[in-house]
Design a protein that fits this description.
alpha+beta, Trna Endonuclease, Chain: A, domain 1, 3 helices, 37% strand, globular
């Protein structure tokens, strides 16, 4: 009888989803409440939106072979896109308008995770 394999190749898309799920677990353990995951707007997508007390955090998750290349892959253009998406989120969710805002980057590699809080600033 022939062997039947139920495995399938892991795509980069699926690896990215798993990295985001891993980060959601990490943030939850750190005391953050997950408000949105893969939040899509007309101006861009935010990987994770999390809250802690009066703080709203917009998180970009990058999965790469090493931590440094993950952080380096977050370009100024990408930061601008995420910042515009955050402004869109705030405009649509007025209950967060008095929260402090922060943009974080979380790099995931095969064996580690590094959280860079306040990774970039945005103009109001």
């Amino acid at each position: 009888m022939p062997k039947v394999s139920l495995s399938f190749p892991m795509t980069n898309y699926m690896r990215g989803i798993l990295a985001e799920i891993y980060v959601i677990g990490y943030l939850t353990i750190k005391g953050y409440r997950i408000i949105a995951w893969r939040y899509k707007t007309p101006v861009g997508e935010i990987d994770i939106i999390a809250g802690k007390r009066n703080l709203l955090v917009f998180v970009e998750v990058k999965l790469r072979g090493n931590i440094n290349s993950a952080f380096e892959s977050i370009t100024p253009r990408m930061q601008d896109r995420i910042s515009r998406a955050a402004k869109y989120f705030i405009a649509k969710n007025r209950r967060f308008s008095n929260h402090s805002l922060r943009f974080d980057a979380i790099a995931v590699s095969r064996f580690s995770l590094r959280h860079l809080d306040n990774a970039w600033m945005t103009l109001a």
